[in-house]
Specification:
Blueprint: H1 3-6, H2 15-29, H3 40-47, H4 51-63, E1 67-70, E2 74-77, E3 83-86, H5 94-100, E4 105-115, H6 119-124, E5 133-142, E6 145-154, H7 164-170, H8 173-181, E7 185-196, H9 199-205, E8 212-222, E9 226-236, E10 240-243
Parallel strand pairs: 3-10
Antiparallel strand pairs: 1-2, 4-5, 5-6, 6-9, 7-8, 8-9
Helix pairs in contact: 2-4
């Protein structure tokens, strides 16, 4: 593939970002071999640009964990950077699961408030008009790179009002609810589909507007099948896989 086919100087996207995205996709798809260094000389020849965008692209890929540098040998792609989530990970347990896999996982919680949810979510949870739920958004990172954005609505007692720092520290809001009020989840139903990033979602997940995202919608239930909450989690599609199995 020639550089003219790969880069578009008139697109408005900086050349280094175009180069970075091309290399990122090749690393994720396995086209870029983890045994073959990404040398500046080869990339200069391939893309026909100056050293500055090449170095900036490689620098950001290194910061985000897609490549690493070996002293005296060059820059190499990281092998198998995709995150694989088993279906058995409990509600709110993604961050803890990632940490258990040796990954540096963290989260940022924002917009914590009691609000009336949108009509669609009220219907899914069988709620009356005017009923307010605990609402917040959690952005999950792996090695400082955003992986998933979860928008949460929880049916909780009025006295349950954790702060953003408390939710960040706990990693799982339902575990806080169980500890403080004895309310325990019994089951969950999931729906998954492909979607594209809006401008706000693209900014949160560090992808391009219109890029593919993996959406996972979950309705949670407590004992007796009582609706307990709703979550919509959006994941960077190239970096995330949802794995499940069935027994017969």
């Amino acid at each position: 593939m020639t550089s003219a086919q790969e880069l578009s100087p008139s697109s408005g996207t900086p050349l280094y970002r175009q180069i970075k995205e091309i290399l990122r996709q090749e690393i994720l798809s396995g086209v870029a071999s983890p045994d073959r260094p990404l040398t500046e000389a080869k990339l200069l020849e391939r893309f026909g640009v100056s050293r500055a965008p090449i170095r900036q692209a490689l620098g950001e890929l290194a910061d985000e964990g897609y490549v690493y540098r070996k002293q005296g040998r060059g820059t190499f792609p990281v092998e198998s950077p995709q995150i694989q989530r088993p279906a058995g990970v409990r509600a709110g347990g993604l961050q803890r699961f990632l940490s258990s896999q040796g990954l540096k996982a963290s989260s940022s919680v924002r917009n914590v408030a009691r609000v009336e949810p949108p009509a669609r979510i009220r219907a899914r949870l069988s709620l009356a008009n005017g009923e307010e739920l605990l609402h917040f958004e959690r952005l999950i990172f792996v090695d400082g790179v955003p992986l998933a954005l979860a928008t949460m609505y929880m049916v909780t007692p009025p006295g349950f009002s954790p702060s953003a720092p408390e939710l960040e520290a706990a990693g799982a809001a339902f575990e806080l609810l169980e500890t403080s009020h004895g309310i325990r989840l019994e089951s969950a139903e999931h729906e998954a589909w492909a979607t594209t990033a809006t401008a706000g979602q693209a900014a949160d997940l560090d992808v391009g507007e219109g890029d593919a995202l993996f959406a996972l919608e979950t309705v949670f239930y407590t004992t007796g099948g009582v609706p307990a909450g709703h979550r919509l989690a959006l994941h960077r599609a190239d970096d995330f896989r949802y794995r499940f199995a069935e027994s017969y």
